Fold:
Amino acid sequence: AKVYQVVNLDRLAQLTGVLITPALLWEKGIVKSRSKSVKVLGDGELSAAIKVQAHAFSRSAQEKIEKAGGTIEVLHA
Structure:
């Protein structure tokens, strides 16, 4: 089974106007490892559109991002 670093939407909500990538999350200290895959979970609310690249998204995270006008891109490790 794949081991993911998980990030909730509430941690991403502040990162508007930039492409959110695993490298950016690592640089900002939101995830601890630069090399492990990142999964976005749906805890939290979004008030603005965000663009997110990650290796996996929960269904609720995908729905909330798209409902707020944002986009997701699934990365393949």
Q: What stands out?
A: The mean pLDDT is 95. The longest strand covers residues 4-8. The CA atoms of residues 49 and 69 lie 5 Å apart.
